[in-house]
Specification:
mainly alpha, 3-stranded mixed β-sheet, 8 strands
């Protein structure tokens, strides 16, 4: 639908992650505000560090800073296209990167279209689809000529943010930390869907646009699973359940534990007091976390699971001469 020239097919993407990140960025520079398909993400093509750097710069509209041979700042040429990335996997353990994306799990063709009928119809029409986006853009330009249309679109966007935030709260309870970007991303997409729906109706083709669906709740749940605090608590619970570590239930008279069992905290008055450095060391033996005890503590505080002290991140106790 964005093939404005040439004879492209699903087997000839404009770019792929097997190219260098610099190539992906440079090819996306002239595609300002156009859909930019980058095919087949794999970690062997773009390692986590490189991919994270690229996506964070891309989301800010920035390119990679470089110097010329004369040590002068080279002019940036950031990727300006709207990246549509495909792949059999996605990056893990980087919550800030995942929050910048809309991740859609697409079943294989044989599950979506067992007899291939929908694909057959689409392939018969594909030669006509290159004009669709141009007609849609032209229609929007005509609407903008009307006095209040930009204000109407702004109101759609604002109302969508409110509606999606309420949906998130009703499904998951209290307000979830670090979800504003996810809500805004889906609000943008919903606003475009509303404009597209108006365009389709103006063309008297009411039945071709499928009903709105989103996976915002699933995205937020994925983000929670990627939060350092969530991973930390999950690994800690596994260690406690396996008997590799222990949380003593008597802070005044701690028990003696067998060799090899590490005490990581104590229970007292309905609360758990962890030894932060010891606990993180044991968790890192199972799965290294890229966060410090302070960073994890801040996230636990955001989640309402850590009770802050008067002058410290958390309430502290003294056990056998050590402060926990």
């Amino acid at each position: 639908m964005n093939s404005f020239y040439g004879n492209f097919s699903r087997d000839t993407p404009p770019s792929q992650w097997g190219d260098t990140i610099n190539t992906v960025e440079k090819l996306g520079y002239p595609l300002a505000d156009a859909l930019y398909w980058v095919d087949d993400y794999k970690t062997i093509y773009a390692d986590d560090r490189t991919f994270t750097r690229f996506l964070q710069s891309y989301s800010r509209g920035m390119g990679r800073g470089r110097l010329t041979r004369e040590a002068k700042v080279r002019r940036e040429r950031p990727c300006r296209g709207f990246i549509l990335s495909t792949g059999e996997t996605t990056i893990e353990g980087e919550m800030s990167v995942i929050a910048r994306m809309l991740i859609l799990e697409i079943p294989p063709w044989e599950h979506r279209d067992p007899q291939g009928e929908a694909l057959f119809k689409a392939e018969k029409l594909h030669q006509h689809l290159s004009g669709f986006t141009a007609h849609f853009a032209s229609w929007i330009a005509n609407q903008v000529a009307e006095e209040d249309y930009i204000q109407d679109v702004a109101e759609y966007f604002t109302n969508n943010i409110i509606g999606l935030s309420e949906k998130l709260k009703s499904k998951l309870g209290k307000r979830q930390a670090n979800t504003d970007r996810v809500v805004r991303n889906w609000a943008v997409l919903m606003t475009v869907y509303q404009l597209l729906n108006q365009f389709i109706h103006d063309k008297n083709a009411h039945d071709i646009l499928p009903p709105w669906q989103d996976v915002m709740i699933e995205t937020v749940q994925t983000l929670r699973e990627e939060r350092a605090s969530e991973v930390f608590l999950d690994l800690l619970s596994q260690l406690v359940a396996s008997g590799q570590v222990a949380i003593d239930d008597n802070i005044r008279q701690p028990k003696e534990y067998p060799a090899g069992v590490q005490v990581v905290g104590y229970k007292h008055d309905g609360f758990i007091y962890l030894l932060p450095d010891v606990t993180l060391r044991e968790v890192n033996k199972v799965q290294p976390l890229k966060f410090t005890t302070t960073a994890i503590g801040m996230q636990l505080k955001e989640d309402g699971l850590l009770i802050p002290g008067k002058s410290n991140l958390s309430v502290q106790k003294s056990v056998r001469g050590s402060v926990i």
